[in-house]
Hints:
Elements: H1 2-5, H2 8-27, H3 29-81, H4 89-112
Amino acid sequence: VNQVANLTLVSSACGMVSTAYASTKESHPYIRSVCDAAEKGLKSVTGATASCVQPVLTTLEPHVAAASEYASKGLDKLGEKLPLLQKPVEQIICDTKELVSSRVADAKDAVSS
């Protein structure tokens, strides 16, 4: 999970969502009260679940470690094959706009000639 969260694409997308969430809460008092209530409920459920799940996690720890190692290797390979994962969302959007603009310009040139 940490490795996925540290991918540039994922971390920049999470940052954008977090900024939008905070801005929305700040701008709309009714939405803020709903979000605050949801956050409070989520914190209490998370706390209660953590204490119940801990004994199971302790038992499964060797299996979780093996799965984590396997997933980590897979993510490394995926990162090599998809360099897009190492770019921030803003860069991907900019590159996509440039590519589309270039293709549209090429199509216009082809039609006009």
